[in-house]
Amino acid sequence: MTDLTRLDYASIRKGLTSKAFTTKEVVQSYINKMDSTRPLNCYITECTDKALKDAAASDDRIQNNEARPLEGLPLAIKDNYCTKGILTTNGSKILSNFIPPYESTITHRLKGAGAIALGKTNLDEFAMGSSTITSYYDPTINPWKKEGSDRDLTPGGSSGGSSASVAARSSLIALGSDTGGSIRQPASFCGVVGLKPTYGLCSRFGIIAFASSLDQAGPITRTVRDSAIVLKQMAGHDPHDFTSVKYPVPDYEAALTGNIKGLKVGIPKEYRMEGLDFEVSEWWEKTSQWLSEAGAEIIDVSLPHTRYALPVYYIVAPAEASSNLARYDGVRYGYRAEGAESIEEIYEMTRTQGFGDEVKRRILLGTYVLSAGKYEDYYLRAQRVRQKVTDDFTEVFKSVDVLLTPTTPTTAFELGENTADPLAMYMQDLFTVATNLAGIPGISVPVTTSREGLPIGMQLIGPRFGEEVILRTADVIERVAGFKLKEEF
Ligand code: GLN
Predict the structure, then answer these.
(1) Which residues does residue 267 pair with via DSSP β-bridges, in sequence order?
(2) Is the pLDDT of residue 2 over 80?
(3) So what's the pLDDT on residue 1?
């Protein structure tokens, strides 16, 4: 039989329905891959025994013609989604013993639709980072290497474990979260598809908060079709999340018509900035040519406040984080430092020992920009500029349907590179943060490998609830690009 981990979910679904193979066989193939790729450190927690039990139950359903929309889908879950009864660390020592008593809405929905959880994937601590290197559980390694080199590369972050697992085929689809690029950047580095939906489309309930006005759940997949399939099950109003929007969920798969005749594609000139790798820039141009050949109209546009997006993000995100992370005090749940003699000491020692350097840096930064006397100069100002960044998009989407940009300025960097220089690391988010500030959707789709043999991803940005149009366009790019993951890593 062909290696089942090679198939996308659309094909798995067909094979299960036609009884060409069983869910148990599918899940077992993934468990074998989890074993053979363990050195990549994609997972913090594996749930393989439970997965096999679930697979047996799934096969029963198929036998009884009761298959659900995601029946038998081997799913990896970023370890910042609360999973009832399963360790949920958020990549942090401070939650190293946290077993949630409840389930996030998204994982609840996907499991209810038939997905089978393989385990919880590695991430930058509290989803803060672009390399998965700040995880308390050691970094994840990108399955890709430069041609002729043995050196380990970062899978990107913060959803590094999720994207590396999809690329290395130790999961079929993985959940990520994206606050400033954490789905799209690692997807781009690993040669897979990463979608950040419109803010409010997918529930945040049970996803450990980083920056609440920016966080969004989204899927990481090998194909655009799989992204559309799983998004349909993720999306939709949730009364547990007060920012969740009542929006009728369309059939995203039906949007993949292959037809983009007359589509207006904007190329924002501000994204041609310093630090953009020459080859990435070349492929940006080439991708826009593909779209033009497929019948789209390419239009040069301007988003004048683009250069403020990154500084605004690094005020707003830490500010919200400093407030969200105040709850980790060693009292109610999570890690508690030993030997404290007063309540103040419990707080201080727990937080000193429980948080890593990057998280502490963000808490300090966030507390500073919110402090009396600084609040107006930083936080309030940042909020005003955030509105301007958003207005740029509103304006531009009056004349175009989608925007095409690179996902990241460069291909994957080496493990440990940029770690000593937080600003260099923050530059990773140059092309992704603006969409989070504006609450609009973005998708990264792989287009090629560079001369050094590393994946290059392009980003499509759409207006609010423009998931269908970005998925349709990404699907066209995918068909033309014919990008393939390596057979074996
Ligand atoms: N890299 C960005 C940061 O460090 C984005 C993280 C994210 O999207 N979770 O904040």
Answers:
(1) 300
(2) no
(3) 62
Residues 367-399 pLDDT 10s: 999 999 999 999 999 999 999 999 999 999 999
Q: What is the mean pLDDT of residues 445-457?
A: 98
Q: How far is the CA of 436 from the centre of ligand 1 (A)?
A: 10
Residue 159 is part of which domain span?
Answer: 1-489
Strands 193-196 and 173-178: unpaired
Q: Residue 112 C-alpha to ligand 1 middle, in angstroms?
A: 29
Question: Nearest Cα to 179, choosing from 155, 156, 206, 209?
Answer: 209
Please give the single-letter amino acid code of residue 253: E
Q: What pTM was estimated for this model as a whole?
A: 0.98
> What would the two tokens of residue 254 be?
């039906």
> Percent of the chain scored above 90 by pLDDT?
95
Q: What is the mean pLDDT of the chain?
A: 97
215 lines ligand 1 (CB under 6 A): no
How many other CB atoms are there within 10 angstroms of residue 60's CB atom?
11
CATH number, domain containing residue 79? 3.90.1300.10
Identify which of 81, 126, 128, 459 to mutate to test ligand 1's pocket (most ligand atoms within 8 A of the CB).
128
Looking at the structure of the chain, the number of domains it has is: 1
pLDDT in tens, 116-156: 999 999 999 999 999 999 999 999 999 999 999 999 999 99
Show which residues are catalytic. 78, 158, 182
Please indicate whether residue 128, judged by its CB atom, sits closer than 6 Å to ligand 1.
yes
Which amino acid is located at 276 in the chain? L
pLDDT the model gives residue 304: 97
